[in-house]
């Protein structure tokens, strides 16, 4: 199934790639070689498969349903897919991978969410009051655990005002400033986790920008704007006041080589990336 | 040896209304769908589901009005439907009590049940609303009074670590289901279970339950499974009933047998957006179908042949998955 | 990928004096003996052993003066020597601190270490002297002061069950070894481990440790092990070093490879009754032997061929075991 | 490997069997059909293999190293032996079997010990003061756990005055009257175990007698005396005063069929039962 592609490392021009392409590519670039990476269903899978083909050939991919070190040649549609098993080091079950996660073995996790606040707290559970909801979402799944226990987490999100919120309706997955129970007190993640502090959200990649976090204040700031996105456009699509003070400029677009790998090797069937 | 073979109907008759139930599989993979359909045909009611995660099968049970309590961490159809509409409606109508945990929590709840301890400790989910005591829904409903021995007195506990001074750790209560229904690739006639590929949380779920029903693609001789016992998942003695039901996990997929039937799940997910759509779908595919065999005939052969997995790859190379 | 192959000597050089160590296997089965012998030749000292159970390898390490702390539940040679004479002597001379647990305790200590939690609860051993606080030997020695981060502040803890009111449960602290040495049938060049037959507590021991060294009967292509990944025991990424050493578990036995060399173990067990007997035995079979290959030659071919297992039975049909 | 034997159900006469034979046979008779039986190395393995060939063909044997439902045709010399794997339902590891034990799934366990007291407390750890021992034994192994958590336990012991003691030097494995820690108070096992009380020692089989327990007082009493053993002989070989009030008479000797199975099928190699 592996194809040899001409490696064209020139950046693609606007119009030559979609927002989803840029998301996947930007996410893949977060992976360092040799890292242990935990990936959820969807764009995260695209990102790790792309990373394995480009900058991080030695990364070890853990899928939460129970595979470690997958070398899939066919894109898994979900982490329970038999395609995750192909070429993996071990196919076991959740207990195995969640124990290893809690043991502190995961360097990087890719996750998604429905809502996020400026501290990186994520909601995947409910819109509206939990006790009287407007809309029920699937729930935490492993989002919460993985984000609690990985050293770095990268969230891949859709940029909308109603999704980038001052306060999330339900705090499913912990950011840098969290509510410690049973007391209910808000505190810095470092304080809440104490000796079991392993890290936290490292970046948020939306279809408009890349964000990072100031670990001291716990606040999100804009790192790069995607090509064509202005500070004004981004602020309009965000429910809290953005910090542009550390913005480094434009997000690097995909290279032609990355796009070729995405479309010809990673997702030739067009499961997540329908051909234009 | 006691004969453990039953018909699907007989096996499902062992499940009582009001029971606490759990299942094999993960989201839309290796779910005991033939048993789920039969549960619907037998009109099981007031089920208390406790699942490491849920999926299409749960939405069907909820849509049919079979569920009164759900303890889990996730419900949906993966790529084929992001919103659990049936659950959404039943929450709003107050017909279902929903108790949210995280994946690690509910997994450890099963493992605690399997190991015979009342709880396990975990670091997962600190600082989140999953631990918010205002959201203890079984407590709010007055069901944590000990009358139902399968519902613990608390949703969570907390305890300091006396060994390494790592601070206060979270305790999750054991899950103690009445019944676990497993769908596996193979079961021996005495009950030994072999699962190929990922085993998800099947081992924990089965061992936590008091009764285990196994539906398998094929019943094979015990002696065959006992030739390579290091490949088996569950010992025969904990299995109470076995049923042979080929394609019995459809529309969910399973390693080495068949892929997910995404179009089928999408159809259900779309129909499930309304109460009447759900009913129509159930009428057509469940109540209007007398048996598992009728269901397979209604699906037809060419549909199934597209889903059948390739022997080398363990997934289908024929199923159309994307838009290309 | 980083090359994980090392010589036996290099791999054992990774182990520091004073380290906390654990091993694969069960009593006299699948112990990493080639590595044990090499540890003795390299004169490792002050080792802190933490083992689900011990056996001939432990007696050898103790007899050679390599061990200062032992936390486990059992030590001996099974059928081939009921008394752990080396341990007996070292306890009496005060050279070893012995901390007794039960099988379930120490197993759960490993599992807690593997899962990254500080402890696990268990019901095992209520009402026995294993819990007697007078017999907390690391505590008596003043070693539970937190200076060594691998020694917990307490030997046991107790906590009420807040979920089902089942009373006070026993808590056992996580085991957090520096190094786990595994002997397996097969390892891939990147480190994926396959163990056939019983896996004992290898999975928990390896995952609890910070560093994992795998000695295997054979190094095979990763791709071969990855064709059936549901048969593998440990993922490659947690393995730090691999060594090929055929017959590397001798005199202990292993499924599908060779049986226990009972006569050899008996000889050691008998020699171990005295300090000088132990020294003589070690001089002959360890210090006087330069390498694993020399050791095998000294054993000779016909001895090994009698131990070699039958491919069907997975045990030897040639080894003389009893008196008939 | 299975041999068809003529089933001679006549009892053997004294001199036609050894003390070990009687031990194994008496132990085998404790197994009810269909029970889940946990067996340790040595005579317990003989007993369950004999039971599986006679009165309990459907019993499920668990060996603590990690096999369930063994159908060994060659006698395992230890529970870690590959021979335990032959024909078993699952070969896994300790975590699997000890979890199931603690879950309350084990009906009957066979164990041994170095010392026992009249409450069935067993010592396998040390002779003399634990802090200043005369002789160190192997230790608990799973003895303690199995005896804590099985519904019934049968101990197979050598009858000697120094082994049947008023008080064991170290309480490794819990009988009917135990010391509850951390308080150190002596109490009935039922009280010590509370809701997790599953049962306890059910019989002790020595080379001279079979003992059972009064569950209320927790005291051992003599159930049957082996052929040729008198009350006087037994008392001489016991370190505490024996209760003969419920003695039912003589232990049934092995039948010829049982002996044939023991010597021809279970242990033809003479590992535990050398041929006379």
Automatic annotation (TrEMBL), chains A, D:
Transmembrane segments: none annotated. Belongs to the 3-oxoacid CoA-transferase subunit B family. One of its GO terms (molecular function) is CoA-transferase activity. It holds the Pfam family CoA_trans. Signal peptide: none annotated. The keyword Transferase applies. Gene3D superfamilies: Glutaconate Coenzyme A-transferase (3.40.1080.10). SUPFAM superfamilies: NagB/RpiA/CoA transferase-like. This is Acyl CoA--acetate/3-ketoacid CoA transferase subunit beta. SMART domains: CoA_trans. Keywords: Transferase. InterPro entries: CoA_trans_fam_I (IPR004165), NagB/RpiA_transferase-like (IPR037171).
UniProtKB/TrEMBL annotation, chains B, C:
Pfam families: CoA_trans. Gene3D superfamilies: 3.30.30.40, Glutaconate Coenzyme A-transferase. Keywords: Transferase. The keyword Transferase applies. One of its GO terms (molecular function) is CoA-transferase activity. It comes from Peribacillus asahii. PANTHER family: ACETATE COA-TRANSFERASE SUBUNIT ALPHA, KETOACID-COENZYME A TRANSFERASE. SUPFAM superfamilies: NagB/RpiA/CoA transferase-like. InterPro entries: CoA_trans_fam_I, NagB/RpiA_transferase-like. This is CoA transferase subunit A.
